[in-house]
Specification:
Elements: H1 21-32, H2 43-50, H3 59-90, H4 94-121, H5 125-128, H6 131-134, H7 136-148, H8 150-153, H9 162-183, H10 185-196, H11 201-231, H12 238-262, H13 272-289, H14 303-310, H15 322-326
Bound molecules: manganese (II) ion and fe (iii) ion.
Manganese (II) ion is lined by residues 76, 79, 107, 110, 210, 214.
């Protein structure tokens, strides 16, 4: 009997032989990007953050940095909780579970990254960790994801009927495609644009590592969604596909509102309307990745973002340790 979910013949303890080799490949890709926040030097960031007068960050840049630290500091824990409490329980296939454990570990690293950045810069945790309650554009993103992933968090939810398999796929799309695939990307573009101007280079490098991890999470999530749909083709109705497309469109609008709130007047080389174009470009890629037609047809205004995702770890500064990780697998990002 085949089946990535809902398979009574699956023994979750028996990983070999593999049924879904892509799950194992994503695991290896995750290992190949192994890192911890303490490996990134933060001295320049501390100096720049405290500097006043000539060469100091502008109020617009500070606002953008604080908003992104505020969004990510709680979003990483939200994704970790969803993963462990809602997704792991239902995905019984052992190689997928092995990947989910790796991803959960990476989310713990990401949560730790924002503790580390906040501590290093001397930020007030009461401010940063309350932004998801106090900043409407952050709150709306979090509430949208919580609403979209509600059924799988119900302890009595079981995926025995086609309706519930469809509900599960819907929630996976909310979690993987919209949260990790859209709601993180305006923040990535903003912080990496700053890095390209040699500002907050330590925080920027942390975001680079997170972006590479997240691109693997998104890829695993898309393969998981596609495998469930391939095994349960009846759930992929025209109405359901339309609903998913509408959800993704709504996700782009919420992320757009967040970017405008982060960047009300723009900063050097970056304006919220260009981020909107980038969001439309990536939303089309997310749709196509789960076999849905694109809806925006926007060209990529930030080709350097794809270069960062594709950059291999040995191009980063701590070259000595990279070879060990590289033996684990071949890095291929999409
Ligand atoms: Mn993460
Ligand atoms: Fe993630």
């Amino acid at each position: 009997m085949k089946g990535i979910i809902n398979n009574p013949t699956t023994d979750p303890n028996k990983i070999l032989p593999l049924t879904y080799p892509w799950a194992r490949q994503h695991y290896k890709n995750g290992v190949a990007n192994n890192w911890v926040p303490e490996e990134v030097p933060m001295q320049q960031d501390v100096e720049l953050w405290k500097r006043q007068g000539i060469g100091a960050l502008t109020p617009e840049e500070r606002r953008m940095i604080l908003y992104n630290l505020g969004f990510f500091s709680t979003a990483e824990s939200l994704t970790a909780n969803n993963l462990v409490l809602a997704i792991y329980r239902h995905v019984t296939n052992p190689e997928c579970r092995q990947y989910l454990l790796r991803q959960a570990y990476e989310e713990a690293i990401h949560t730790d990254t924002f503790i580390y950045c906040g501590d290093t810069l001397g930020l007030n945790p009461d401010e940063i960790y309350n932004m998801y309650n106090q900043i409407p554009s952050i709150k709306e993103k979090d509430e949208f994801v919580v609403a979209m992933t509600q059924s799988v968090l119900d302890p009595n939810f079981s995926i025995r009927s086609p309706e519930n398999i469809q509900r599960f796929v819907h929630d996976l799309i909310g979690f993987y495609v919209i949260m990790e695939g859209i709601f993180f990307y305006a923040g990535f573009a903003m912080m990496l644009a700053l890095l390209r101007q040699n500002k907050m280079v330590g925080v920027g490098e942390q975001f680079q590592f997170i972006l590479r991890d997240e691109s693997v999470h998104l890829s695993f999530g898309s393969d998981l969604i596609n495998a469930i749909v391939a095994e349960n083709p009846g759930i992929w109705t025209p109405e359901f596909r339309q609903q998913i497309t509408n959800d993704i469109r709504r996700g782009v609008d919420l992320e757009d509102a967040y970017a405008k709130d982060c960047l009300p007047r723009g900063i050097l080389g970056l304006r919220a309307d260009i981020i909107r174009q980038y969001l439309e470009y990536i939303a089309d890629r997310r749709l196509e990745r789960i076999n849905l037609p694109k809806i925006y047809s926007m060209a990529n205004p930030f080709p350097w973002m794809s270069e960062i995702i594709d950059l291999r770890k040995e191009k980063n500064f701590f070259e000595t340790r990279v070879t060990e990780y590289q033996t684990g697998g071949n890095l291929k990002w999409d």
